[in-house]
Automatic annotation (TrEMBL):
This is Squalene synthase. It holds the Pfam family SQS_PSY. It comes from the Eukaryota. GO terms for molecular function: squalene synthase [NAD(P)H] activity. PROSITE patterns: SQUALEN_PHYTOEN_SYN_1, SQUALEN_PHYTOEN_SYN_2. Keywords: Transferase. GO terms for cellular component: endoplasmic reticulum membrane. One of its GO terms (biological process) is ergosterol biosynthetic process. The lineage of its organism: Eukaryota, Fungi, Dikarya, Basidiomycota, Agaricomycotina. InterPro entries: Isoprenoid_synthase_dom_sf, Squ/phyt_synthse, Squalene/phytoene_synthase_CS, Trans_IPPS_euk-type.
Amino acid sequence: MTLPDEKKQAILRKFHELTLTPGWTFTESGPDEADRQLLVEYDNVVEELRLLKPEYLSVIVEVTRKMELGMADYAHKAATTGSVYLEKISEYDLYCHYVAGLVGEGLSGIFAASNKEGAFLASQYELSNSMGLFLQKTNIIRDYREDTNERRYFWPREIWGDPKYAVPKEKGGLGRGFKEMYEMYEEGNEEHARWVQKYGDCYSGALFWEWEDVCGECED
């Protein structure tokens, strides 16, 4: 992170407005920041977004508005404490909601707006969020070492700090084996399975959409 927290907060909390501002770019990211070039050329993203049909654009902007608030909160936490550290399972779920659950909500809204799926899908917030949590928790479990090397601690202390994991297996405990920490993914499995069963085909079919079905009328 190369930007002062104060500057980052100001940008994040109005990003849904900046992302529609013609010509907007950002050139102050450090040379090694992964998304630097994207921000340097962000005016191209703005231009493409403004070509979308209003019913799609409104969904994207609203999801961006919600997500930016959560990301700003976590960026502030990292800046003031030196790391992202989750204590409670509820924090774990909330973080996953902001970074992925809202993506599920946005996709459901876009699919419903396309009339290729039922309008009811746009209001299935719990199931859409569940899809996002399922995917994000998979990433968090997989990327444990990479995240800890970057001082990002997404595995909540409420799980790994349970006394049962401090007792060696030879004494009847579970030891420190991460494979035993079923709580990392067990919560909500039934809901995730229900989402896949009911709506999985919607998202699979979306991969075959034509760009012109999403984009508005464009001049040559």
